[in-house]
Amino acid sequence: MENRAHALSAGLFLVLLCIGLIFVAIRLNGDTGDQQDYLLLSRTPVSGLNRNAPVRLRGVDVGKVKDIQFSPTDPHLILVRIGVDKGTPINQGTYAQLSYLGVTGLSYVQLDDDGSKPEKLALNPDEIGRIEMRPSFFDQVGNSGQELLRDTGQAAKRLNQLLNDDNLQQLSQTIANLQTASGRIAELAAALQPTLNKLPAISARTDKALARMDPLLANLNDLTQEVRARVDTLDRIGSTADNLGQTSQDLQDTLPQLHIMINDFSHSSHVLDRVLSDVQQQPQSLLFGRKPARPGPGENGFSLPAEAH
Predict the structure, then answer these.
(1) Would the pTM count as exceeding 0.70?
(2) For the chain, where are the alpha helices, taking DSSP H only?
(3) Taking the chain, what is the end-to-end CA distance rounded to the nearest angstrom?
(4) Are residues 119 and 206 in the same domain?
(5) Do 125 and 219 fall within a single domain?
(6) Domain boundaries, position 257
(7) Smallest Cα–Cα separation from 205: which of 213, 216, 217?
(8) Are both 213 and 120 inside the same structural domain?
């Protein structure tokens, strides 16, 4: 009787142990009736990702990885099957990335939503839902590092071609020419400095010369107008002379006036001749004025001319 009771107890223990093992295996495999399967599509390596790896949505555990395999139609495409708890907000804009568990080298699936498509992902009973898997941060850094190294290599090759022996020789010659040109510019600046210092005085003299020119030009203008008036008078006299035979009385009245006009014209001609003679003898008088006349007898500074030997 006791042997039968011990055998019954042992059998019951074995049954309960088997049930416990089955339950643990089911929990470890993640096969529960409260999960929905999704398929992650990745064209980047999934290093460190294993079956039963956690699946998290913005840091919250929502499922596990069930299977990892290559696509039968595209060998560059990796298919990751995950089980996610029902009720998890999976939208059309949800994407997946690999994240790493500290320094262990193991990774897990991180789900996130960029908000571009807030509509809920529609599930088809005949087809599993698909989620895009984007490159992880380390993948992006690795790709950027490779591109940076490639660009650096190309830049180094171009720099090596630029700094060849011929170009270095030409560059050295250019630098030497620049140094020579700089020295000549300094010498030229030093030579021009006295001229630059005299510019204010020259400008002041020019202003004075222009001020003296204004009255002279005004006198020449008046003289020109007077000459024109005399020429007009001569024209009138000429026309009057043509009618001398007819108007002798007019001729007697005109002759005194003609004599006066001729004297005025002669005087104006002498003035114009004197002005032109002074300008011809002393052209600098237009800018600096006429030189003072030599002192006469009885004036300060008078001296007798030296006798010719």
Answers:
(1) no
(2) 2-29, 137-162, 165-241, 248-281, 285-288
(3) 182
(4) no
(5) no
(6) 197-288
(7) 213
(8) no
Give the separation between CA 212 and CA 287, rounded to whole angstroms: 7
Residues 143 and 136: their CA atoms lie apart, in Å, by 11
Shared domain for 129 and 202, answered yes or no, is no
Report yes or no on 236 lying in a domain. Answer: yes
Name the domain boundary from 90, 113, 136: 136
Note whether residue 70 is domain-resident: yes
> CA-to-CA distance for 70 and 68, rounded, in angstroms?
7
Please report, as a single letter, which amino acid is at residue 305. Answer: P
Residue 151 lies in a domain: no
Residue 96 in tokens = 């997946």
Residues 6+ apart with CB under 8 A from 42: 77, 78, 79, 80, 96, 133
Count: domains in the chain: 2
Percent of the chain with pLDDT over 90: 2
d(CA 113, CA 8): 56
State the Cα–Cα distance between residues 270 and 72, nearest whole angstrom. Answer: 122
Ranges 61-65, 109-113, 214-218: which has the least confidence: 214-218
**What confidence tens digit (pLDDT) does each residue in 96-108 have?**
888 888 777 788 8
The two structure tokens encoding residue 301 = 């500074």
Which residue has 């000429």 as its token pair? 238
Tokens of 279: 């300008």
The per-residue b/e assignment along 159-187, b for 16 or more CB within 10 angstroms, e otherwise, is eeeeeeeeeeeeeeeeeeeeeeeeeeeee
Determine contact, residues 91/127, Cβ cutoff 8 Å.
Answer: no
Indicate whether 229 belongs to any domain.
Answer: yes
Q: φ and ψ at 68, to 5 degrees?
A: -135, 125
Rounded CA-CA distance 163/168 in Å is 6
Domain end position, chosen among 116, 136, 156: 136
Can you read off the two tokens belonging to residue 191? 């030579």
